[in-house]
UniProtKB/TrEMBL annotation:
Source domain of life: Eukaryota
PANTHER family for this protein: CHPADIPLOID STATE MAINTENANCE PROTEIN CHPA, CYSTEINE AND HISTIDINE-RICH DOMAIN-CONTAINING PROTEIN 1
Keyword Cell cycle: no
Protein name: CHORD domain-containing protein
Region described as Disordered: spans on this chain: 63-136
Ranges of Low complexity composition bias in the record: 107-118
Lineage summary: Eukaryota, Fungi, Dikarya, Basidiomycota, Agaricomycotina
Keywords: Metal-binding, Repeat, Zinc
Residue stretches making up the CHORD domain: 4-66, 141-205
Organism the protein comes from: Somion occarium
Gene3D superfamilies the record matches: 2.60.40.790, 4.10.1130.20
Biased composition (Polar residues): 82-106
Length: 285
């Protein structure tokens, strides 16, 4: 079956049952600003997120029919040429031409090359699929850049071609307008082209990650910001995937505050990818 090419959808669809209510997509473009990711069409509805996987899960805000047509790319306006010629004609018919061509010299611009070799990217601890966990047909592979749907255990978890996953093992990177993945060198400017970057590694699909072994509890420091008004003190603790039922905020004295932030367990994160296994505790006085 064809796959929808609208932003935020990417689902396979049956043309015979395709209606104007079948597709939920984003009519605007992606917005990346200071680490936050959102869609220009629904910033007032869906809050910006930090994690790219969470950004890809933001539900579409526009209804329509599925389509497999390639998205249209708006042509870029031509850049003005730095070389400008100005011609002036006097009353006597004389013509003068002025040019803004920059002067060049025969000396070549020196190139400075760094002698220090680039540090290799450490291998990422990749999750493995658990074949004992049943998967609903149509479930999308969780690996970045794959996009294949689960058909059956024999097809998607067997030994045939459909069981081979071509994906990106490292997260995406967005820098000064360019988009790509840390694991490969290709960089593009358009977000639609970024979604088409083929994977650089082959392995097995990831439909149901294996449950990780429980790690020894450890304490870490979270990022903490605070500001004070004449009547109040506002404290913000930044921590991902926290368990609000087990986390505790306790006022010890009029000048001391204790905050214990507890993360969710892996069983609580069946739909997430990167659970935390640590506790953060900070005191202010």
């Amino acid at each position: 079956m064809p796959r929808c090419t609208r932003k935020g959808c990417a689902q396979e669809f049956d043309p015979s049952t395709n209606t104007e209510e079948s597709c939920s997509y984003h009519s605007g473009g992606p917005v990346f600003h200071e680490g936050l990711k959102s869609w220009s069409c629904c910033q007032d509805i869906n809050k910006p997120v930090l994690d790219f996987d969470e950004f890809m899960k933001i539900p579409g805000c526009t209804k329509g029919s599925h389509t497999d047509e390639a998205p249209k790319v708006e042509p870029q306006a031509p850049k003005p040429s730095p070389n400008v010629n100005l011609t002036m004609t006097s009353d006597q018919g004389a013509t003068e031409t002025y040019s803004s061509l920059s002067r060049t010299t025969g000396a070549a611009t020196p190139t400075i090359a760094s002698s220090a070799p680039a540090e290799p990217i450490p291998p990422a601890a990749e999750e493995e699929d658990d074949p004992s966990v049943p998967v609903t047909p149509g479930t999308i592979c969780r690996r970045k850049g794959c996009g294949k749907s689960f058909v059956s255990d024999e097809v998607s978890r067997g030994d045939g071609e459909e069981s081979v996953c071509t994906y990106h093992p490292l997260p995406p990177i967005f820098h000064e307008g360019s988009k790509g993945y840390l694991c490969c060198k290709r960089r593009v400017l358009e977000f639609d082209e970024f979604l088409k970057i083929g994977g650089c590694k082959q392995g097995r699909h990831l439909f149901a990650p294996k449950e990780k072994e429980a790690k020894t509890e450890e304490f870490i420091d979270c990022r903490v910001d605070h500001y004070q008004t004449p009547a109040e003190v506002h404290v913000s603790v930044f921590a991902k995937q926290t368990d609000k039922d087990r986390s505790v905020v306790q006022i010890e004295t009029d000048k001391a505050l204790s905050v214990s932030v507890v993360p969710l367990t892996y069983s609580d994160l069946s739909t997430q990818k990167h659970p935390l296994s640590s506790i953060s505790e900070r005191k202010w006085s």
